[in-house]
Amino acid sequence: xxxxxxxxxxxxxxxxxxxxxxxxxxxxxxxxxxxxxxxxxxxxxxxxxxxxxxxxxxxxxxxxxxxxxxxxxxxxxxxxxxxxxxxxxxxxxxxxxxxxxxxxxxxxxxxxxxxxxxxxxxxxxxxxxxxxxxxxxxxxxxxxxxxxxxxxxxxxxxxxxxxxxxxxxxxxxxxxxxxxxxxxxxxxxxxxxxxxxxxxxxxxxxxxxxxxxxxxxxxxxxxxxxxxxxxxxxxxxxxxxxxxxxxxxxxxxxxxxxxxxxxxxxxxxxxxxxxxxxxxxxxxxxxxxxxxxxxxxxxxxxxxxxxxxxxxxxxxxxxxxxxxxxxxxxxxxxxxxxxxxxxxxxxxxxxxxxxxxxxxxx
Length: 362
Ligand code: ZN
Ligand code: ZN
Hints:
362 residues; binds zinc ion
């Protein structure tokens, strides 16, 4: 990781937009721009100030020791609050004669208002500058995402030997989580989705106590987190022998998954990849039952740029990591989704999910 290169990229954006300073406060964005390891958690009280000359990390005493250690040998200076982080930060802005500051679009309104009132200069909310930088991964980031994907693959292999009719969705979700955490996942990037029978027809079902029975489709959407980086995959299996309709739908979703993958390459627009998968379902009369976007970027967050959906004009870049996850959902009946994680390459893609996609009956 080259902290200086990330800072330089953000500074180029400041220069391009003619803004003298940005305050980065999103946890994943702060983690990215600083490159600090073992400092951040979801509850951290911190902010990063970046100007053409300054790279300052503000936090409170709970995080100061870890931050000071992480900042050694980097361009970052650590400031530990005495009483109020934002009051002291705004005072420093005034002392540094900074007259205008950019904030990220996700800044909570209360904080926006507080900073606007406290800081004498002008405050403006800008675009997703850091998220845009995060889209193209460095090789060590891809290695971490690949490790998280591989751990999820192992969890899928493990769960296949574990699922039996009579278990609940909750049993399966817990076992998936337990396996991944025991084998090195730092928490979960999102709670695993385990949806059986009619529940599988809800694209983002929450886990219930429903008992899994013969004849069910069982959809499992889960991921691991390794050294801060996420993975995301979905597989759908059948309990007992799959019905003719279930086979038909599974084959269609698999064809859409493959068509989507084939469309992935550097320079393609997000909407085009979505359309490649959608039209594979349309050929089989199932496009109306595909009700969400085809995919999204994955990195420090499980949902990040770029987006692959019918409205996406994101140009997909080499080095991005994206999901390809078509699904068909028949309300009240069943749903099938197959989701893979891939690295975008100049002329195609490299698969990071290696769990089997052949139809599996348990
Ligand atoms: Zn997923
Ligand atoms: Zn996903």
